[in-house]
Amino acid sequence: MGIISYFPVKYIIGKNDVMSQWGNILSKQTQNEKNGVSSFGDTNYKLTTKGINSQRVVSGEEIYEAGTDVLISKQEVEQAKEFYVLQGQSEKNAEKEAVKYMEEFNAMYVEAVNNGFDVTEQEVDDYISELQKMSEEAENADDVKKVIAQFESEDAYWEYQKTVCRKQLPIQKYVAVLEKNYLDKIEKDVADSDTTDLWNKELDKIKEKAAEKQKYKRVQSDKDIDKKFEVNN
């Protein structure tokens, strides 16, 4: 399936104690976001203009880039960068890949919501419950435990996962429909392996186009953030 995933555990298994390192990164950055202090005055901003993530609020100081309909947090970019560093990439390449990934990921969330693929809190809770069961029964259950152990509690880890799922699940829904529509057009003429390759290339184009629509720009001050993101205190 052509799903944009948020650094799935299976991609970083096999390196010496890397799961504990990854869990430590997630835990620390989650705490940093909670404890963030703004130098942008008293103004806070919602991360998106629509959907369930419009309820998530950050300070201006926490924002890395601003798009037309979505804001990318520094925490997201830094987390992505650390993921790529764990994969063996240089700091420079890791940051470049991280920014690209997060621009596309957030842009696809906007596209998903605009096309009617949001989620409810109940859907998120149900998905997390299923994920908990799967993690206990999975072959890599010990690796998941190493990640969880770096958080202050298991509940804190699953709360973090809820934050991820509020953005990832709408994308998964949207991409699944896009993939089905695409395969319906070509599957009669193309072998399965070729179909997968073609779809992955098509998805890359879709993600790039979505990111271009957002016209991202780096945030240096509150002047770089559209007032429509402001939260009225």
Structural account:
With 233 residues, this protein is mainly alpha-helical. The protein has one domain. The chain has 7 helices and 6 strands; from the N terminus they run H-E-E-E-E-H-H-H-H-H-H-E-E. The chain has a 3-stranded antiparallel beta sheet, with no helix packed on it. Strands 4-3-5 form a 3-stranded antiparallel beta sheet. Strand 3 and strand 4 (71-73) form a beta hairpin. The longest helix has 33 residues, at 154-186. The relative contact order is 0.18. The model is unreliable at 1-16 (pLDDT under 50).
Outline of this structure?
The protein has helices spanning 18-34, 74-86, 91-114, 121-137, 141-148, 154-186, 192-214, and strands at residues 44-46, 57-59, 63-66, 71-73, 217-218, 230-231. The protein is mainly alpha-helical. Helix 1 (18-34) packs antiparallel against helix 2 (74-86), helix 3 (91-114) crosses helix 6 (154-186) and helix 4 crosses helix 6.
